[in-house]
Automatic annotation (TrEMBL):
GO molecular function: dioxygenase activity
Residue span, VOC domain: 5-129
Keywords tagged on the record: Dioxygenase, Oxidoreductase
Record protein name field: Catechol 2,3-dioxygenase
Pfam families recorded: Glyoxalase
Length: 130
């Protein structure tokens, strides 16, 4: 028995439209609106073969994590775009870089990373494999 990959994760956010704007405009993700069998309307951010499902704080879907709150995430995204290009892109859009470029260790080896925060304060790491 073993797990083979991550399909999706959930972020609890203060405001879904604000979160969608950040991840689509700053990071180039696609937004998906979907309608599960329970009749609700939900939103996800898609990139590669993964997605991030969004839950509005106070309106989370069951089942959910034991201690949900906006800003508790720490996410690392891999990119083929050089970190230097990301720095220019994010600064041009008015997003502050919190740290980097710095060397880090990822799941499969060394990374060159920069850090910023999303609208809820989640730590976002953008990384190139070295």
């Amino acid at each position: 028995m073993k797990v083979t990959s991550l399909d999706h994760l959930v972020l609890t956010v203060a405001d879904i439209p604000t979160t969608v704007a950040f991840y689509t405009e700053a990071l180039g993700m696609a937004v998906e609106e979907f309608h599960p069998a329970d009749g609700t309307t939900r939103f996800a951010l898609k990139f590669g073969a993964q997605k991030i499902n969004l839950h509005a704080s106070g309106q989370e879907f069951e089942p959910k994590a034991a201690h949900v709150q906006p800003g508790s995430g720490d996410l690392c995204f891999l990119t083929e775009m050089p970190v230097a290009d990301w720095l220019r892109h994010l600064q041009d859009k008015g997003h502050a870089i919190e740290e980097g470029p710095v060397s880090r260790t990822g799941a499969t080896g060394p990374l060159l990373s920069i850090y910023l925060r999303d609208p809820d304060g989640n730590l976002i790491e953008l990384s190139n494999r070295l």
